[in-house]
């Protein structure tokens, strides 16, 4: 996907619970970034499952990272600007890729 937007890629079977929430990182969050060790995510947007943070615009976590054994993928696309309206992006995704669910959240 060529969009210039920050994406997250997660192994669905490693996500705990049925819901992800989007919030803001706290100074006390323990966040083990892929290949980077503990990362300070204070003030960053962060997706969380029932255990804790799994993704920010700068890095995803080791716990839910993709591997050669991944069978099911969850992809998040963080759109913060109006360079490409979200409706246009969703339409483009539908034309180029098969997908089951597109969740559109405007904050």
Tell me the layout of helices and strands.
Blueprint: E1 6-11, E2 21-24, E3 32-33, E4 37-38, E5 45-48, E6 53-55, E7 73-78, H1 86-96
Antiparallel strand pairs: 1-7, 2-5, 3-4, 5-6
Describe this structure in words.
- With 107 residues, this protein is of the alpha+beta class.
- It is built from one helix and seven strands.
- A three-stranded antiparallel beta sheet has the order 2-5-6, with no helix packed on it.
- The mean pLDDT is 83.
Question: What does this entry show, briefly?
Answer:
With 107 residues, this protein is of the alpha+beta class.
Mean pLDDT, rounded to whole units? 83
Radius of gyration: 14 Å
The major beta sheet can be summarized as: 3 strands, antiparallel
**Unreliable sequence segments:** none
- Report the principal-axis shape: globular
Numbering strands along the chain, what is their spatial order in the largest sheet?
Answer: 2-5-6
Instruction: Report the order of strands and helices.
Output: EEEEEEEH
- Strand tally, please? 7
| Structure classification | alpha+beta
What separation lies between the terminal Cα atoms? 23 Å
The share of residues in helices is 10-25%
Helix count from the secondary structure assignment: 1
**What percent of residues are in strands?**
25-35%
């Amino acid at each position: 996907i060529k969009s210039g937007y920050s994406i997250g890629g997660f192994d669905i079977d490693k996500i705990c619970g049925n819901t992800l929430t989007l919030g803001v990182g706290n100074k006390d969050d323990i966040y083990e970034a892929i290949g980077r060790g503990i990362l300070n995510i204070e003030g960053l947007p962060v997706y969380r499952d029932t255990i804790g943070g799994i993704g920010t615009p700068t890095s995803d976590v080791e716990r839910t990272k993709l591997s050669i054994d991944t069978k099911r993928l969850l992809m998040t696309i963080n759109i913060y600007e109006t360079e490409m309206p979200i409706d246009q992006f969703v339409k483009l995704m539908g034309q180029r890729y098969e997908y089951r669910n597109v969740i559109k959240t405007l904050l």
